[in-house]
Amino acid sequence: MHELPTAGIGHNDAIRKKINAAVTKRNLASAANNTKWDELIHYFREREDWWPSYRYKAVTGFTSGWDVEWLYHLPFPFALVEWFDIGLKELEPSKGMLLARTYIDHTEEISDVVRKIGLEFEVRGDVLRIWGYLPKTYDDFPPV
After folding, report:
1. What InterPro entries does the database record attribute to this sequence (predicted)?
2. What is the pLDDT of residue 1?
């Protein structure tokens, strides 16, 4: 059976040095670990009805676009993730061309899961942000 990648995959000496250099230069402190990231990944991979969108910022400065593929497109290794945003609303199927589109709000469910895992997070608007490193950064995060 083919195994899906986990949070620590791709963590070799060259990547480790790059991550450590960025973390040291910016005086960051880790707020997450591979075990917690793997619990989060596993939760969403097990869902059958809906996968939320996500994006991330790497400690090296790269910010991804939004994606919804939770099998292989994730930011491996997760040790590089400064923050990880999760979209909290699901577009409901259209009820007709003349009716406004409606959304299912997953804020409570996803917040409960992230809280139980023990990740540092905050919700603003329709985005939940998980911090991989502290201090928290609020760049490109919905206003309060």
Report:
1. DUF6678
2. 43
